[in-house]
Amino acid sequence: MKITIQTQITAPINLIWTAFTSPRHIPNWNFASEDWHCPWAKGELKIGGKFTHRMEAKDGSMGFDFNGTYRGIIPNKKLSYLIEDGRSVEITFTQLGKESIITETFEAENTHSEELQRNGWQAILDNFKSYVEKIAPDALHFEIEIQAPVSQVKKHMLDEESYRLWTTPFSPGSYYEGNWKKGSQIYFLTQDENGEKSGMISKILQHIPDHYISIEHLGMIDKGKEITSGPEIETFQGITENYSFSAKNDKTVLQVDIESVGEYKDHFNDTWPKALEKLKEICEK
């Protein structure tokens, strides 16, 4: 028997996807009642990747590991996995303007009643909705339509030469060192008049060609010195910056979503639209 539950969330789809799949976010919503919690989560978001969500009663009286294996991943659209006991779960993410519908279908087990299982899974999904809508106001979302195919938009966005051009609004002379492969460390940099580097230390969490890129920011470089702990980076360490590319007839819809960036919010609200317009200009030449 399969059971289907659903919720509707007011938040950008990229943020919803990130909050649902990131081990950094999962402990904040993955519990069915206030007397339970999810102390930690870990996993690798790839086909065949394993994950574990630790579920415990807050009084320490009981707990278990919820283990599974990812079977299907289409960022911002669909996720499926097998639970350790062999039951399947499928989640769809449907964007409807500023709203998104999350539909979750799972195979029931034989120990508990259908009602108890439905209510438990729905309670977790309701917690997810509340959590995402709580963090959404501090997140940033930018979107642009570009008259060019996805492959061309992505090429100009990531190639070293064109990257230096479209990122000028952030800081003249912006460039990167590293590559965009999943798992790679990448540095987003500028240099001062003395040749000293400053910028961000980051990691490519996910890269699905022509569809999706997720970047996690780990620290910063200040005049050549790497900083990966301390008060200087507390506002942004661990946040993700996500790009999604989707085809719309002969155009590309590029969406950029960034989690809360604290004091940098006004800066990015000003510079990201200018940078995307510059990228659009480059792609449409």
From TrEMBL:
Q: Which Pfam families match?
A: AHSA1
Activator of Hsp90 ATPase homologue 1/2-like C-terminal domain boundaries:
11-133
**Entry-linked InterPro entries:** ASHA1/2-like_C, START-like_dom_sf
Top-level taxon in the UniProt lineage: Bacteria
Family affiliation: Belongs to the AHA1 family.
Return the protein name. Answer: Uncharacterized conserved protein YndB, AHSA1/START domain
- Where does this protein come from, organism-wise? Algoriphagus hitonicola
**Taxonomic lineage per UniProt?**
Bacteria, Pseudomonadati, Bacteroidota, Cytophagia, Cytophagales
